[in-house]
Amino acid sequence: MNLKDLNFEQKQQYYKTLCEMISPSRTELFEKVIEQRTDHLSIVLENIYQPQNASAVLRTAECLGVQQIFVIENNNDYVLNPDVALGANNWLDLHRFNRNENNTADCLSKLKSDGYTLVATLPAEKDVSLPEIPIDKPLAIMFGTEKEGLSPLAKSMADICMKIPMYGFTESYNISVSAAITMYSLTERLRASGINYHLNEQRRLDTLIKWAKHSIRHSDKVEKEILKRLFE
Predict the structure, then answer these.
(1) 113 vs 115: CA distance, rounded Å
(2) Which of 67, 75, 143, 198 is the most buried if burial means most Cβ atoms within 10 Å?
(3) d(CA 158, CA 50)
(4) Taking the complete model, does pTM exceed 0.90, yes or no?
(5) Per-residue pLDDT at 2
(6) Rg over CA atoms, the chain
(7) Residues 6+ apart with CB under 8 A from 158
(8) Beta strand segments in the chain, E
């Protein structure tokens, strides 16, 4: 039996068994952190190629409780700098789209079908300022390459064009700074609202299992042994 074949109750039993191999203080931390995780806000990175920026976005997302990052790799590989990310990628769900000719369409079509409003970070004739972005529905905030920005396809598929207020001479923020400002603003508004931004029960459990496995050495081997002992 594989983990993906378990029903919800079996996964609960499996997670409880994993926790017996982890210190109580660590499992308590899992339970505390999971309460602030959200899928209501997700980040899309299209063709980001500078490792420090790619890593900084992940680190900020993890710190602010944004669980899902969608990475589109059309011309540039997405490379992390471990000195910047500081392991943040281990606690996030990183979805990479790099198998087809048009990965942008694949990624954004999936997000739309999952009910996300696509928000492009770029100035436009009818753009919306960051503080005015509606948060009642799930948001996928799109960031493009350091030089060219988002692709024409990503712009055309966007539901909202967003601008971040600026009051200086410089024309734009660095991408990692833009992402940080955006995530902080939106997550603070979510937490102050009455919106249920938390992970649903299935996502919550799957995420806890992922974290627990990351905390156990040789977790793949351990998983096979537990599944065999409990369910075969």
Answers:
(1) 5
(2) 143
(3) 24
(4) yes
(5) 86
(6) 19
(7) 118, 119, 120, 142, 150
(8) 41-46, 68-72, 93-97, 117-121, 128-129, 139-143, 160-163
